[in-house]
Amino acid sequence: MDIFKADPSFKELVSSTTRELNKEWILEAVTSFFEYVMFSHVWQGNEPSFQQVGAVKSVWDLPKAVLNEKLHNFCNEAGRLGYRWAWSDTCCIDKATSSVLNQSLTSMYKWYADSAATLVFLAGVAHPSKPGDLARSLWMTRTWTLQELLAPKVIYFYDSEWKPYLGNTGGNHKESPEIIQELADAIKIPRGTITTFSPDDLAIREKLRLASTRNATVEEDVAYSLIGIFKSDIRPHYGEGADALGHLLEEIVTRFGDVTVLAWTGKSSSYNSCLPASISVYDQTPYNPPSLEGEEVETYVTELRGKLSREVALSIYKQINSLPPARFAARRLHLPCVAFSVRRLGIQELCKDNVKVYRARVLGLGLVDFKTAEDLPLQRPQTLVFAHPWVPYIRGPNDGDTWEGDSESVVDFGSDLEHDAGSDEVGPPSPLNAVPAPRVDKYTRALQTLARLGQPFNALLLVQQPDRHYRRVATENEIIVPGLGTDVSSQNIRTAVLEIL
C-alpha cells in the first residue's frame, strides 16, 4: 500500500473523491495499479529462491548468473508491457514454510486465471522460432504448465532470446489463429476451449487425458498440478508419493460419482487396486459401447418384449435403477455394478514376462479370454467376478424416476451364487450423461435399459479376498466381453455394490 500511496495515481484518486465519489472509477484505478503478470517456464536448476531474493534489496541486486538473468528478463518484459507487478514461482513462494507452500499450490490456478497476462519463456526454442517449435518444446511436456496454458486469459510466448514467438507482437497470443491452432493440434482440444478455458469445459476423462502425457520432477506434482483444473479440495503433502494421485482420483469418484477413471489397463495403484499406478494410462482411448438409437434400439426392445414379461423386466430395471453412485471410504471403493460370476477358469497360453492368456466361462456371458501376469485361482474360479460398472451408460436417458431399495451390502459371489446378489441402497441415478428423453411407459423404458445392458462392454475382473472384499486384477488389455444380447433373464443379472481394496 505504501507504494500505491506514493504513486501519482493515488493522489489523483484521493483528490477526485473530494469532488465526487465514483466507485467504478476508484475500482478501475486500484485494479489497474495492482494488475500483475505471471511467469511460466521450465525450471533449469538452482533458480533464485525466496530466501535469496529476500537477502538483497531487489531482484536487480542478485549476482550475475544465467538463471538470475532469466528472472531479470521476465521482470524487464513485464515492465515493458506496462505492468508494475510480476510473480515467479521460483522466488515468490517461501517453500521452506509448508503452510505457505501448500496454500500457494492450491491457489496457483486462480492466480494464473486472475493475472493480467502470463509470460511463457521457451528456453529450448531457438531464435528465430518456427511453426511447431512451441508444440515440440519441453514446456509442453511438464505437469504444471498445463494449467499455466489453460488458466490465463492473456498469454505471451517468447523464444530463447526473449523475442515473441513467430515474431507475433500482438496483444495476446491466445488470439493468434496460427499459435492457437498449433496448440489445439498439439493437445487435441478445440481452439475456443484453450482461449476461454473453464474447469467445467471438459469432461473428467478428457482432463485426465491432457495430463497423461506430461511429466513431473516430483511424483506428487502429477496430482497437485491438477488441483485447479479439477477444482479439487485435496491438500498437498509432499512425501506421500503415489498416494497423491490416489487421493485426487478418489475425490473425483466420490464427488462426481464418475467411474470413467476406472477404464484403464496396466499396473494397479497401491492406494486402491481399481486405480492406476500412473496417470499415463489415461492416454489410452477406452472402449466405448455402441450407442443404441432409433430403429436399432427398437429392434432390441421388440425382441426383448417377446422374451421378458413386464414383471421380470421391471424387476431387473429396479435393481439397476436403485444402484447408488460409486464412492470411496477409507481408501475402499464401493462400486455399484452388474456382476457376472466365473464358473470355470483355465490357462490357454503362456506368453513372455509371465503373462498368461486365461479363458473363463462366465455365467450369462459365455467364454471370455484375457491376459494378465497374475496367478489366478484355477481351482477356485468362483472367487472371480466380471463387473460391468458403467451404470450411467446402462441407464441411458431417463426422466429421473427412482426406486425404493434396501440398504447397501457386501455380496459374497463365491458362496451364494444362486441367490439374488442385488444391493439396493437408496440413491438417485447418476446424473452423468443424463439427457432428457421423450416420456415412455416404464415397461418400454425398462426394455431400453436392458437393451443397453446387453451390449458389449469393458469388464473389470475382480477377485474375492478371504475377508469377502474384492481386489481388481490388473490386465494387459481391456477385457471386452460380448454382452448378453437379448438373452437377459433374472437368473443371469446380479446387481451389487462391491467393496474393493
Please outline what is shown here.
The protein has 501 residues and is α+β, with helices and mostly antiparallel strands. The protein is built from 16 helices and 13 strands.
Could you characterize what this model shows?
- This protein has 501 residues and is of the alpha+beta class.
- It is built from 16 helices and 13 strands.
- The protein has helices spanning 2-6, 8-17, 23-34, 50-54, 66-80, 98-114, 144-150, 177-187, 191-195, 204-212, 221-224, 243-256, 294-305, 310-321, 391-395, 442-453; strands at 36-40, 85-87, 117-121, 155-158, 327-329, 332-350, 356-362, 366-372, 384-388, 457-464, 470-472, 479-481, 495-500.
- The strands form 2 sheets. Strands 5, 6, 7, 8, 9, 10, 11, 12 and 13 form a 9-stranded antiparallel beta sheet that branches. It has a 4-stranded parallel beta sheet with strand order 2-1-3-4, sandwiched between helices.
- Helix 14 (310-321) packs across helix 16.
- The two termini are 54 Å apart.
